C-alpha cells in the first residue's frame, strides 16, 4: 500500500520513501520531441507543476545516472529512455517568496534567489566544475544579476557541459505586484531596461552556448508578452493538445490511485470526486478532462486519516486569493462580466495565449486570466466558437463565496451565521423551507441597492440562494438538473458529509417585477405544473425524502412559498 504524497513535490523522496507516484514520465519524451528546446507552460496553482519539474530535474541530471534504475526503472521513461537522459547540469530557479515591497528590495531578493540557486549547482557539481569554492567567492562579490548568470555560463563552458534551466513560479512576484495594484512598479521591472527583462535577455544569450534547454512554469502568461522582445525564443505549449493530461489526474489514474492507497469504496467515491474536482480541459480538441491533483490528494489524505469525508472539501492552499479576484474586478465592466459568468456558469470567449499588463482588464483578457487561474475551463468548441465553463462544484463554491462577500460589503449586510444555519437545518430536518426564504428576503434582498435591483432576475436570485445555502454545508445545490420532465431550477442534494439529512428539495424559482404582480396567479399555476412534471420523473417519483417548493419573488421585498 502506497503513502499519499499530499503536499509533496520532491520526486526522489516520493520514489525512495514509498509514496504514490502517478506516472507522467511519458511526457518527458513528448516535450523532448517538440519543435523547441525552450518551453513555457502554464497551469493553475497547486496543479502538480513543481513535482513535474522535480521529475525533469532527476531525469536529466548528469549526477543521477547511477540512480536511474532505482528512480525510473518501473516507469514509462525508464523502459523507454531518451537519448538525453542524465546529460545535463541542472540550474533550477524558483521565484516565489521574493520581497515585493519596492523595486530595490525586489531586485535584491531576486539576485539572492539566483545566487542561492547557482550555489546549489556549484555544490551539486563540485566534482565536475573547476575550483567551485573560488567561483562561489567570485559570485558572492557580484551585485549584478546578469553578471552572475554570465559567470556560471562561462564556468560551465570551460568543462564542456550543458545546462538544463528550469524556472518555477516565473510570475509569482509579478502576480503579487499586480495584486497590490502597483502598475508602474510592474512596468519598471519588465519593460525596456527593467532588470527582469535584462535577466531574460541574458538567458537568451546563454542559449547560444551552454544553456541547451529551458522549461518555465507559472500560473499566468501576463509577463510573457511584456518579455517577448527580450526573450522571444520560448514556445508556449500551455494549450498543446498532446500535453493536455501532462498535469492533473485522469479518471483512470484516480481509480488506480484509490487501489494503490488501499481505498475500497471506489464507485461512490469516484462519483463524488468527479463532481468536486474534475472538469479541467486545456485544449478545445482534447477528449479527456483532468482532476485537480492537489485536491484529490488532499481529499484522500483526509479520508484515510478519519475514515470519512473531510469536514472541508477545499484545501485552503487552492482557494483563490479574494484580494486578487477583487483587484481584477475593480472596474465596473469586469465586475459585471464576472457576475454574468457566475449566473450563467460560463461564457463564450476565445482564450488569449499571451497578453501584457496593460490589457489585463480588457474583457477577453480578463476571461482568459480566469481560465489560467483554473476558475474557468473549456467546455466545448463548435465552429471555432469556444464555450468556457466553471469546471466543478468546488470552483462554483469559490465564486458563490466571492459573490456573498461582495453583497455583504457593498450593502452593509449583517447577520449571524447561526441564523442561516438554523434556517437551513429546518429545511433539512423539519422539511420547512419558509424560514430560509424569510431569512433571504429580510436579511439580503431587502437590503440590496438600486444598482443590484436593476440586475434582478431568476438567475441572479438563484446565485444569491446558492451563495447562502453553501454557508452551512448541509446541501449541495445543483442548477438545472436534467430530468425527463425538464430542467429543475434548483435541486438541493444532501451534502456527502451529512448523510442523515432527512429532506432533499426540488425547487422551481420565479421572479416578477412589482409592476407585473397581476401575473402571480398564472405564474403560480405554471410553476406547480412544472414541479409535478419533474416529480413524475424516474428517480424522483417514488422518493419520500424529496420535497417540492415553488418560490415566487415579487420585486425585492415580497415573496410567496407554495409547497406542492
Automatic annotation (TrEMBL):
InterPro entries: AAA-ATPase-like_dom, P-loop_NTPase, PDDEXK_9. The lineage of its organism: Bacteria, Bacillati, Bacillota, Clostridia, Thermoanaerobacterales. PANTHER family: AAA-ATPASE-LIKE DOMAIN-CONTAINING PROTEIN (PTHR34825:SF2), CONSERVED PROTEIN, WITH A WEAK D-GALACTARATE DEHYDRATASE/ALTRONATE HYDROLASE DOMAIN (PTHR34825). It comes from Thermoanaerobacter thermohydrosulfuricus WC1. This is AAA-ATPase-like domain-containing protein. Residues 5-228 form the AAA-ATPase-like domain. It comes from the Bacteria. Pfam families: AAA-ATPase_like, PDDEXK_9.
Amino acid at each position: 500500500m502506497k503513502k499519499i504524497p499530499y503536499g509533496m513535490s520532491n520526486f526522489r523522496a516520493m520514489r525512495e520513501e514509498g509514496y504514490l507516484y502517478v506516472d507522467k514520465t511519458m511526457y518527458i519524451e513528448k516535450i523532448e520531441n517538440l519543435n523547441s528546446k525552450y518551453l513555457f507552460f502554464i497551469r493553475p496553482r497547486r496543479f502538480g507543476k513543481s513535482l513535474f519539474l522535480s521529475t525533469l530535474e532527476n531525469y536529466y541530471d548528469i549526477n543521477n545516472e547511477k540512480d536511474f534504475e532505482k528512480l525510473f526503472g518501473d516507469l514509462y521513461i525508464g523502459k523507454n529512455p531518451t537519448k538525453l537522459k542524465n546529460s545535463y547540469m541542472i540550474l533550477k530557479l524558483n521565484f516565489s517568496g521574493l520581497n515585493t515591497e519596492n523595486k530595490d528590495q525586489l531586485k535584491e531578493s531576486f539576485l539572492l534567489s539566483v545566487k542561492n540557486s547557482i550555489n546549489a549547482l556549484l555544490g551539486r557539481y563540485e566534482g565536475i566544475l573547476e575550483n567551485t569554492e573560488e567561483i562561489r567567492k567570485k559570485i558572492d562579490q557580484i551585485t549584478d544579476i546578469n553578471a552572475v548568470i554570465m559567470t556560471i555560463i562561462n564556468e560551465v563552458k570551460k568543462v564542456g557541459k550543458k545546462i538544463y534551466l528550469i524556472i518555477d513560479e516565473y510570475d509569482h512576484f509579478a502576480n503579487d505586484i499586480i495584486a497590490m495594484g502597483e502598475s508602474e512598479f510592474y512596468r519598471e521591472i519588465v519593460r525596456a531596461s527593467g532588470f527582469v527583462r535584462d535577466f531574460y535577455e541574458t538567458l537568451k544569450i546563454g542559449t547560444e552556448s551552454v544553456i541547451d534547454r529551458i522549461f518555465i512554469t507559472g500560473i499566468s502568461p501576463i509577463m510573457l508578452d511584456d518579455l517577448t522582445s527580450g526573450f522571444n525564443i520560448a514556445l508556449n505549449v500551455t494549450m498543446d493538445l498532446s500535453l493536455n493530461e501532462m498535469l492533473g489526474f485522469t479518471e483512470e489514474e484516480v481509480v488506480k490511485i484509490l487501489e494503490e492507497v488501499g481505498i475500497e469504496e471506489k464507485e461512490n467515491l469516484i462519483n463524488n470526486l468527479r463532481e468536486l474536482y474534475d472538469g479541467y480541459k486545456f485544449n478545445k480538441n482534447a477528449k479527456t478532462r483532468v482532476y485537480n491533483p492537489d485536491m484529490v490528494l488532499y481529499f484522500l489524505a483526509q479520508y484515510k486519516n478519519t475514515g470519512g469525508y473531510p469536514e472541508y472539501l477545499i484545501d485552503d492552499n487552492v482557494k483563490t486569493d479574494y484580494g486578487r479576484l477583487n483587484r481584477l474586478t475593480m472596474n465596473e465592466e469586469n465586475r459585471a462580466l464576472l457576475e454574468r459568468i457566475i449566473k450563467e456558469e460560463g461564457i463564450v470567449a476565445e482564450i488569449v495565449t499571451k497578453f501584457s499588463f496593460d490589457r489585463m482588464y480588457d474583457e477577453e483578457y480578463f476571461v482568459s486570466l480566469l481560465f489560467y487561474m483554473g476558475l474557468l475551463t473549456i467546455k466545448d468548441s463548435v465552429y471555432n466558437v469556444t464555450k468556457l465553463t466553471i469546471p466543478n462544484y468546488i470552483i462554483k463554491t469559490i465564486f458563490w463565496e466571492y459573490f456573498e462577500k461582495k453583497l455583504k460589503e457593498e450593502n452593509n449586510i449583517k447577520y449571524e451565521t447561526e441564523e442561516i444555519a438554523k434556517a437551513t437545518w429546518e429545511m433539512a430536518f423539519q422539511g420547512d423551507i419558509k424560514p430560509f426564504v424569510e431569512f433571504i428576503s429580510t436579511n439580503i434582498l431587502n437590503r440590496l441597492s438600486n444598482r443590484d435591483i436593476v440586475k434582478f432576475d431568476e438567475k441572479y436570485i438563484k446565485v444569491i440562494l446558492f451563495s447562502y445555502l453553501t454557508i452551512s454545508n448541509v446541501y449541495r445545490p445543483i442548477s438545472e438538473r436534467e430530468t425527463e420532465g425538464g430542467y429543475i431550477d434548483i435541486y438541493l442534494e444532501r451534502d456527502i458529509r451529512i448523510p442523515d439529512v432527512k429532506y432533499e428539495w426540488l425547487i422551481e424559482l420565479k421572479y416578477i417585477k412589482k409592476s407585473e404582480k397581476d401575473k402571480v396567479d398564472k405564474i403560480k399555476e405554471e410553476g406547480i405544473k412544472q414541479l409535478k412534471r419533474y416529480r413524475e420523473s424516474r428517480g424522483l417519483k417514488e422518493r419520500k425524502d424529496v420535497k417540492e417548493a415553488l418560490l415566487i419573488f415579487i420585486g425585492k421585498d415580497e415573496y410567496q412559498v407554495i409547497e406542492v
